[in-house]
Amino acid sequence: MSITSIIKLSLLAVRILAALASPIEAIGDEVVQTPAGLFPKSKVHAVPEGARLHQSPREVQIIAANGTVIHSRPYTPSKTALGLPGGPPSSSLTTTAQRELQSNWVAYAYWDYSTTATPIAFFGTDWTVPAAPTSWDGQLLYWFNGLQPGGWNEILQPVLQYGISPAGGGNIFAIASWWLVGLEVYHSGIMEVFPGTELQGHMALTGISTSDSVTTYSYSSYFPGYSIPTINASTTHVLSVASEVLEIYNAQTVSDLPSGSTDFTAVDIKFNDNSHMSTIPWTVVNDATDGISMSVISYSGTDGHLRLTY
């Protein structure tokens, strides 16, 4: 291993340990760039490995593996849709600066299944870690498939990142799972991955329970083969909007992005009754200004294929 690689891994390890050492409270109210959008740093929390998250109508908790509640926040439903500032996803994106690429969700596809009664029980997508961008300007890039409720104000997501996020990182690729719920954002530990690595981003509905007339849905976000970047969370909301997304921050030019394209393959959406849609009617939103696009190669409900072109 080269000295450069050792230094990168050391920096990554320091960031992970620092985050996990203090999952309860971040210091200051600096705005940070999460896969769920821009949030105050004090609202972003690391979840120790083995712990789980629970959202009730009144609060959000981190519960340790031994059952101890190690974090609690009042649950306040967000009134703002995620992804793009000021409202739900729209095909009309605004440029944040003349010299920069657009920010937030710049190219994505989504499918809203929130009008039906049968919950999505599994959403899986495969993709390969791309080659690193040719330029490093402090950009932060996120690739993910995600599940949201119908209001678009919360999201569960297994995420590939390039850059430094609130979870850590550097001039490297890394994976983590994230959960935005209410006004708080939670993330797992992160693990470095390398260009050419084949990833599987999975989300699964693991249980449904009802107590005192409140129904709770338990979900898991994970990458098969990796234990650290996992979040297990229970919520009172059904996650019924599926999305495939490229989200970017601080990118100055297209050289701050990988070249070519990234394929999201083996896209599989299964319902709680073990049925599938034969086709998924994806809605696509692109960044025409910068030439970044998401296209649907196959609408299959069990082996779909979308292509992100930079």
Give the terminus-to-terminus CA distance. Answer: 31 Å
- How does the helix and strand content classify structurally? mainly beta
Mean pLDDT: 86
Q: Return the CATH topology.
A: Jelly Rolls
Helix content estimate: under 10%
Q: So, CATH architecture?
A: Sandwich
> Can you count the helices?
1
Radius of gyration: 18 Å
Keywords: Signal
Signal peptide: 1-21
Would you write up a description of this structure?
- It is a single chain.
- By secondary structure, the chain is mostly beta strands.
- It has a single domain (30-84, 104-309), classed as Jelly Rolls, CATH 2.60.120.
- It is built from one helix and 21 strands.
- Strands 6-5-4-16-15-14-8-18-21-20 form a ten-stranded mixed sheet, with no helix packed on it.
- A hairpin with a 3-residue loop joins strand 4 and strand 5 (59-63).
- The chain is globular.
- Keywords: Signal.
- Residues 1-21 form the signal peptide.
What would the keywords be for this entry?
ten-stranded mixed beta sheet; signal; 1 helix; mainly beta; Jelly Rolls; globular; 310 residues
Which SSEs are present, and which pair or pack?
Elements (H helix, E strand, L loop, with lengths): L2 H19 L9 E4 L2 E4 L3 E3 L5 E4 L3 E5 L5 E6 L29 E9 L7 E9 L11 E9 L6 E11 L2 E14 L2 E4 L3 E3 L4 E14 L2 E10 L2 E10 L5 E9 L11 E11 L11 E3 L7 E6 L5 E6 L1
Keywords: Signal
